[in-house]
Known about the structure:
This protein is mainly beta. The chain has one domain (3-353). The protein is 7% helix and 45% strand. It has three helices and 21 strands. The model has no long low-confidence stretch (mean pLDDT 92).
Amino acid sequence: MPTGQRGSQAIDRKLPFPDATVSVEYVDTKQTEALFVDNLNLRPTTVGADGRQRFTGASSQTNALVGGFDNVIRTRNVQEGASQYVSFSFDRPFKGGWAYNVSYTHGHATEAQTLNSSTANSQWQFNSVFNQNTVEVARSDYEVRNRIQASVSKEFRIRSNYVTTVSLYYEGRTGQPYSYVYSGDLNYDGFSGNDLVAVPTSPSDAHFDFSGMTQAQQDAYFAYLNASGLSRFAGGHAPRNYFTTLWQNRLDLRFVQELPTVRNVKLQLFADFINLGSWLSHGIFNYIEEINTSTSNGGQTRAFGNASYTTTGLIKPTATLDANGNIFFPSTSTIQAHNNDSRWKITAGIKLIF
């Protein structure tokens, strides 16, 4: 089973003014036994011009490494993956009817493989890779690089034993990590949409063949490489999960009304306005944006056109343009608000405290 070791250090300091507590905490985690899934029955062939291992195709009785078997999926342990997070917080409990909290967390998390599908076979298929079956450590799907949280609460008392509390909660955080991949099966491992994009240095890059593109497509292709930040990996490939969606902003509102009953028993009426920010302004509070693809089948990806190898091993990319002459992304790799999580909603309930 997956095993990790974790250590933490923290310090709290009570400030006499304004009667608040300042905290600093560091948490370090290392994966000592992380899961890694590979396919033992892929038959390798040559290496492409970009250094990517190529295969004979999907494992079958005709082109597999060992005939008579299809995919032979192995789940094993690797000692890869870690995270380091540091957080700073300033907390003031209720005093004079007011309470507030502000915190900031910065972190970095890596993993050997994206493991968020349902079976070992799909874990292998939906993992974005450069060299299939090779341990490639990259940013974790679950990393939140920067996160700010703030809350403020105010108590109102119509009578001494009828307390009304109103709270606002804000969260701002780095968006979700995602990868650029080709829509087809460049390395010919039998699965499409999981091959990381190789980045050319220029239209004359000797490792690429742009004869499948018109001049307009080439211009749009390189314009997007520059605008997206892919060009920083010119001469190599864009690592898994290097990119993130837009910064996320969320605002929630909560009402709590206490009603006395008998002795030490209290009745609480509460209402939560979840994602109030989205109701106020979609432009400011954009919680939450995702790639429009199934999150049950691996990490978030954007299909940056297709590519194939020529007979001499050169990478031959293709591109489709939209009506404005820009690179076209299919609906399955368009960044957009997640329909459920971006909605505002109101929930209410009753709590009995004794």
